[in-house]
Write a structure and sequence with these properties.
206 residues; alpha/beta; Arc Repressor Mutant, subunit A; Rossmann fold; two-stranded antiparallel ribbon; 41% helix; WH_DNA-bd_sf; NAD; NAD(P)-bd_dom_sf
Length: 206
Amino acid sequence: MSAKHVPDIVVARLPLYLRALSAMQNGGKVFTSSQEMAQWLGISSAQIRKDLSHFGEFGKQGTGYSVAGLQEKLRQILNLKHEWPIIIIGAGNIGSAVANYPGFAHRGFRVCAVFDNDPKKIGRSVGACKVYDVRQLPEFVREHNIRMAMIAVPAESAQEVADLAIASGIVAILNYAPVNLSVPAHVRVENIDPVLHLQHMTYYLA
């Protein structure tokens, strides 16, 4: 079944399943069950089975799921069969930290460049990446066929940066700026704002 027919909340849980399976494999497990995955994730086994059923039948009666086999299927469903190049826009504290994060490469992503408008940062290296002038972004995106970008700039600059990225060919944005972006319908945006998560948690601390 095509992903466009699957509820987005289901797609959002697939990376959690993939992460759990990877941890299981690292621990030497060969087979698992929806019950065991439920214990790892705090999600009901019925929900896990229902989510996976959107994409076919993966388990076998009596043996459960092959840890390696289900990982392979999920990577295929999530379009992780090849490495995705990504750019970061913003070479400040957040952008630099993200560029230095070592966990992208073995999970299907490669940060290949960082962009900024600060002359003091342009030309320097952040992690393994060179910092380019943001004015070079359109040419770089087209030349390297980049489709994904992370935005790590101040809130007041985020929309302008997003507009530039989208006009250059970016269709998926991970947004670290604490502001909602206005984007065309064909562009996917995921927002990362730790304050929102902290505010969510403080509700339970009364």
